Amino acid sequence: MLSLLIKRFVKDYDNTKDFKVRNSYGKLASVVGIILNLILFAIKFIAGTLANAVSIIADAFNNLSDASSSLISLLGFKLAEKPADNDHPYGHGRYEYVAGLAVAVLVAAIGIQLLRTGFDKILHPTELAFSNVTWIILVISILIKLYMMSYNYSIGKKIDSKALIATGDDSRNDSLTTLAVLITGIISVLTHLNIDGIVTLLLSLFILYSAYGLIKDTLDPILGIKPDEETVKMLEKRIMSFDNILGTHDLIIHDYGPGNRFASVHVEMDYKLDVIKAHDIIDVIEVTILKETGIHLVIHYDPISSDDELVNSMRKLISELVKGIDSKLSIHDLRVVEGVTHTNLVFDLVIPHEFDKSIDSVKQAIFDAVQKENPKLICVIKVEYSFV
């Protein structure tokens, strides 16, 4: 059914990298979610009232909140469409992340309400009265929620939408919730044991745990999470594929919403290379990366010596040394500044943010190794943190 709606309402639906196509997918998924959740709320509320089962009624209101979640997602996709303006030159793409966070908070609120309902039902149980209609409604509800989970995951991964993936997680939780309610009814019929309140309590804890994960996943891109390793490796490999590029470092990627990323990087080229040619190569790389990945890349040019025996030997020595200390350590921009009594070896030492060793001990180890190699060399080390 959804594939037919996609072909009908999403123009150029195969071109998911296009911002407008992507948003059309998101808005369609949200509208379908609103409609299906309202249907589920109505039939579950009726079933819960007939069966006198608070767990079913609670599940019904959970679906009503899901309709609100889909409405929030729809609003997020709509607001994200706003073009860049003077106050927001990077666009409004992060509205989608905010929408995903709002959905996660709403899920948490439902979990808290179910927790209270479960306790109340344990203290004040009421007799259950499941009927054939109730069974049918619960089974249909599970099938609908599994379908919603499937299409939210499918579209969410297709357009890289955390909001839709969060909605898919919520649909999965709902299908498990309804399955638990169904099992509660079966146990009640077979054993006359009323565990309605206990099941509601357990469901609330499951939903709260899920909400915690959703909040973390949707909050990360707003706070500024490090880029995924696949993107980092892809960019470094693509940049290194161009002629005259000897190395890259200081890659930084900023995410301003799906499909709206900006990045900067330093590239190393031989200092003898003509400046005009180096500038032309950089222009070509920036244009190529934008065309192939949609990432707005700004490149800083670092001229390095590739034929100086001292520089090359020291670069190899120090690189191997820091890698032996920690594989995540690296150096760059190594240069030699000669003096009368000594020669300065100037370079940058890159460390991860959660480095568990003493930085001073690392610097001392480098200093000692260089001094052993050549007592006239003095290390001048600038420490910086990696953003990837």
Q: Can you tell me about this structure?
A:
- By secondary structure, this protein is of the alpha/beta class.
- The chain is 63% helix and 14% strand.
- It is built from 11 helices and 6 strands.
- The chain has helices at residues 2-9, 19-51, 54-80, 95-123, 132-159, 162-191, 196-223, 229-240, 275-293, 309-325, 359-373, and strands at residues 247-255, 261-270, 295-304, 330-338, 343-351, 377-385.
- Strands 1-2-3 form a 3-stranded mixed β-sheet, with helices on one face. A 3-stranded mixed β-sheet has the order 4-5-6, with helices on one face.
- Helix 9 (275-293) links the parallel strand 2 and strand 3 (295-304).
- The longest helix has 33 residues, at 19-51.
- The protein is elongated.
- The mean pLDDT is 84.
In short, what is this structure?
This protein is an alpha/beta fold and 388 residues long.
Write the topology of this structure.
Elements: H1 2-9, H2 19-51, H3 54-80, H4 95-123, H5 132-159, H6 162-191, H7 196-223, H8 229-240, E1 247-255, E2 261-270, H9 275-293, E3 295-304, H10 309-325, E4 330-338, E5 343-351, H11 359-373, E6 377-385
Parallel strand pairs: 2-3, 5-6
Antiparallel strand pairs: 1-2, 4-5
Helix pairs in contact: 1-2, 2-3, 2-5, 3-4, 3-6, 4-6, 4-7, 5-6, 6-7, 10-11
> Which geometry do the CA atoms define?
elongated
| Percent of residues in beta strands | 5-15%
Query: What is the H-and-E element order?
Result: HHHHHHHHEEHEHEEHE
Number of helices: 11
Mean pLDDT score = 84
Radius of gyration: 29 Å
| Helix content, binned percent | 55-70%
Strand order of the largest sheet: 1-2-3
Distance between the amino and carboxyl termini: 41 Å
Total beta strands: 6
List the uncertain runs: none
Structural classification: alpha/beta
